[in-house]
């Protein structure tokens, strides 16, 4: 007697990619997640290409991975994909100390974040 198999959490027309342990604060990473949320993947890749943020490269790699997962694992059409969800989660925080005046120590926190991107295939309406 075993448990029932877990139902799939994604729809038939969805694919996802997760980047873990990104060395950037979740607040800064969320700015880039907001930038691409709800856009077509071509437009989102172009926006990330010309973004001046340091973590735009990590977000772009994760988005390209989600697109590759959609194409290879789920047989979805790349031209019809949009970024359905892009959300950020907290990960661990490294704690360090820096010497301060009068023999004291200041605490330095170096946060890490997780990024999840879900792409969805939408039916395109034919131009007549």
Could you characterize what this model shows?
Part of the 50S ribosomal subunit. Belongs to the universal ribosomal protein uL22 family. Pfam families: Ribosomal_L22. The protein is α+β, with helices and mostly antiparallel strands and 128 residues long. It has one domain: Alpha-Beta Complex (Ribosomal Protein L22, Chain A), CATH 3.90.470.10. It is 29% helix and 35% strand. The protein has three helices and three strands, in the order βαααββ. It has helices at residues 26-36, 41-49, 56-72; strands spanning 14-22, 81-99, 105-121. A three-stranded antiparallel β-sheet has the order 1-3-2, with helices on one face. β2 and β3 form a beta hairpin. α2 runs antiparallel to α3 (56-72). The protein is flat, with a radius of gyration of 19 Å.
Distance between the termini: 56 Å
Order of helices and strands: EHHHEE
Number of E strands: 3
- Total number of distinct structural domains: 1
CATH homology superfamily name:
Ribosomal protein L22/L17
CATH topology: Ribosomal Protein L22, Chain A
- Determine the strand fraction and express it as a percent band: 35-45%
Structural class category: alpha+beta
Helix coverage percent of residues? 25-40%
For the largest beta sheet, what order do the strands appear in spatially? Answer: 1-3-2
Radius of gyration: 19 Å
Largest beta-sheet characterization: 3 strands, antiparallel
| Backbone shape | flat
At CATH's second level, what is the architecture?
A: Alpha-Beta Complex
Low-confidence stretches: none
The helix tally amounts to: 3
CATH C-level = Alpha Beta
């Amino acid at each position: 007697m075993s448990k029932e198999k877990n139902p799939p959490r994604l729809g038939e027309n969805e694919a996802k990619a997760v980047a873990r342990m990104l060395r950037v604060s979740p607040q800064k990473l969320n700015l880039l997640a907001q930038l691409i949320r709800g856009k077509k993947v071509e437009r989102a890749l172009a926006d990330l290409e010309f973004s001046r943020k340091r973590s735009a490269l990590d977000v772009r790699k994760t988005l390209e991975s989600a697109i590759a997962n959609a194409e290879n694992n789920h047989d979805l059409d790349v031209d019809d994909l949009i970024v359905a969800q892009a959300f950020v989660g907290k990960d661990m925080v490294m704690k360090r100390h820096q010497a301060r005046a009068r023999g004291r120590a200041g605490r330095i926190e170096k946060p890490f974040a997780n990024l999840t991107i879900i792409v969805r295939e939408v039916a395109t309406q034919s131009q007549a």
